[in-house]
Amino acid sequence: MAKAPQSGYKPGMQPAYLAHIVSSPDVCGGKPCIRGTRLRVRDVLEYMAGGDSVDDLLQAFPYIQRADVMACLAFAADHSDYPVLAAAE
């Protein structure tokens, strides 16, 4: 049986991505961005979905760090589980 990755995350902990991802009404309309930039979490995810690697992103955006990209992924994972509401019949 494969061993689970050791991310250091423990249930109930404050997510580590909060040190990297911020939302401000004055920046990108309040969309979540990498702290100190106007690079949105969505932008990072779209680049990666299009086939760009973390190294590609670090080269294209030299003002971000690997931890910023990992924070974007963690943020997306944390916000991807949403309740499904049954439609009224």
Keywords for this structure?
single chain; two-stranded antiparallel sheet; globular; Arc Repressor Mutant, subunit A; 89 residues; mainly alpha
* CATH architecture assignment name: Orthogonal Bundle
Mean pLDDT: 87
Work out the strand percent: under 5%
What would the principal axes of the Cα set say about the shape? globular
CATH superfamily heading: Winged helix-like DNA-binding domain superfamily/Winged helix DNA-binding domain
Secondary structure tally, helices: 3
How many domain units? Answer: 1
* Element pattern in H and E: EEHHH
Backbone structural class = mainly alpha
Distance between the termini: 44 Å
Can you walk through the features of this model?
This protein is mostly helical and 89 residues long. It has one domain: Winged helix-like DNA-binding domain superfamily/Winged helix DNA-binding domain (Arc Repressor Mutant, subunit A). Helices cover 34% and strands 4% of the residues. The chain has a two-stranded antiparallel sheet with strand order 1-2. Helix 1 packs across helix 3. The longest helix is centred in the last third of the chain and has 14 residues. The protein is globular and about 50 Å long. The termini are far apart. The model has no long low-confidence stretch (mean pLDDT 87).
